[in-house]
Amino acid sequence: MARMHVQSWQETYRGLMAGEVLDDPEFITTRETFWTAALCDERYARNRTAVALQNCRVIGIAMSGPPQDADASWAVQLYVLYLLKAHQGSGVARMLLEAVLAPEESAGSWVADQNPRGQAFYRKHGFRPDQASESHAGLRAIRMVRHPLAQPV
């Protein structure tokens, strides 16, 4: 999972983030530490994680959990949704999203501002920008939020 996570960042963010970040020899170790905690630490017991495999190889990952944004007006935060470039447009990202977010759940996610394909994907699934933004490692992200319509009684 850590290797796929790093590879997807390298494919998606090359030219948008500093090469020192993407090519840091410790990047995989950092992601291994992240995934070990996300999957094993009791603090993350309420998170939902999904993995997409092809021929026993990880090609996509997703993770959601309780929101940590102080101003969250949604029930679930989508923290991770990454797919190897070769599998984008195949429907796998939609399956990963559906595995970690129920259709009726309101949700928030941070998306790279310079990732129009990612933003289009989220728009297709009901997310809209809410005007919040932040920067990490030189990459600006916008927050997108989904508030499904209330179901008729």
From TrEMBL:
rRNA-binding listed as a keyword: no
Classification via InterPro entries: Acyl_CoA_acyltransferase, GNAT_dom
Keywords annotated in UniProt: Transferase
PROSITE patterns for this protein: GNAT
Residues in the signal sequence: none
GO molecular function, one term: acyltransferase activity, transferring groups other than amino-acyl groups
N-acetyltransferase domain boundaries: 1-149
Descriptive protein name: N-acetyltransferase
Organism of provenance: Cryobacterium frigoriphilum
Source species taxonomy: Bacteria, Bacillati, Actinomycetota, Actinomycetes, Micrococcales
